[in-house]
Fold this sequence. Notes:
alpha+beta; 2 domains; 14 strands; six-stranded antiparallel sheet; Methionyl-tRNA Fmet Formyltransferase, Chain A, domain 2
Amino acid sequence: MGTPDFxxxxxxxxxxxxxxxxxxxxxxxxxxxxxxxxxxxxxxxYAVEKGIPVLQPEKLKNPEFIEELRSYHADLQVVVAFxxxxxxxxTMPAKGTINLHGSLLPQYRGAAPIxxxxxxxxxxxxxxxxxxxxxxxxxxxxxxDSVPIADDETAGELHDKLMVVGANLLVKTLRAxxxxxxxxxxxxxxxxxxxxxxxxxxxxxIDWNKPAQTIHNLIRGLSPYPTAFTLLNEKNLxxxxxxxxxxxxxxxxxxxxxxxxxxxxxxxxDGFIKLLDIQYEGKKRMLIEDxxxxxxx
Length: 297
């Protein structure tokens, strides 16, 4: 059960490891783009290519869907980047339902663990497999694996790294379940839990009154999607990549300096943020030199 590219890597790993994937459950096709052409999920495209049956329920409690799902007699259900399951679904298989989550649980439970880990300036992240329980991301841990986060790493880069590490961990987890060799660990009771809620547009707006490091982490944590942004000449300016210039701004926070050719830097509370890779409203994504060449500020 999954929808985006992150889930495809796991599905492919299970197929390559010769597990019998009897069916795939993914999101319904959605109209996208100017022509409103129906867009299939990444998981559906892969499953169709491999001849795996695909289920695309609008509602997961729909009796027809429940009946069809039951007809596959799956021993185990595997969830990777999907939506919340009703109890009737996750309790169905004899061996239960497991989830692959993009954080080191119990930290960063929620919809956007990869983004929030970088936004908070973490130096380490990872993936965890666990058995589903009623409360989201709280089930007993089966296995986990950690990876370092580099100082300039973006959410997109960490996503791609965890996608591969997660797929390998999932195969390892299934082998352990298959061999009846699983020791589940309850998630530690931690008072210092950091959460990873869904990110909305207002969360992406840069507050230039904050320290440069905090702003840099926000830009990295939202790149390439949903992308941090600021206003320039009353239009949205998305920022995909930037760097910190560690010197006293001497101008008001949110003000900018530019030579009109090679740099555009905004003043933060304690330094500058130099923009490197941006997208101005109505234009395509470009490097700052290309943007300045066609823009008078």
